[in-house]
Amino acid sequence: MQVLLRENVSRLGRRGEVVTVKNGYARNYLLPKGMAVEVRRGEAAAIEAEKKRLDRVALQEQMEAEERAERLKESSVTITAKANEEGHLFGSVGPAEIAEALSAEVAPVEPSAVRLESHIKELGVYDVTVHIWGDLEAVTKVWVVGE
Description:
Blueprint: E1 2-5, E2 18-20, H1 23-30, E3 36-38, H2 44-73, E4 76-81, E5 88-93, H3 95-105, E6 114-115, E7 120-122, E8 124-133, E9 136-146
Parallel strand pairs: 4-9
Antiparallel strand pairs: 1-2, 1-3, 5-7, 6-8, 8-9
């Protein structure tokens, strides 16, 4: 069955693409969730109109993502944590804490979008990469200070 994707679906395709999938996958997963619409013969004009609409939506999302990336690049956040005299934290600062601080002060960020090699375990200033949209990423400064 051929379907037009209304959303990006991992390992299948991007929004606006027409892809061929098994009937069960389309009927049981993609169509009920609104992630795709069935492509029928003779509906070429409707498919092109939907593709254009999805392209406009994607362009708007990209512009918003670029704006959010600029705000993240130009900003920094401070996270306070308990630490000993040497600067080692009691615990660690992870993606959830960073996303919460960024969402409160700069722009909405999901914890899954924060890219850390490992949790932060010492006081200091860190460059943290945040995945925004598609291939767009922003690097922002995170200050970890003691209480």
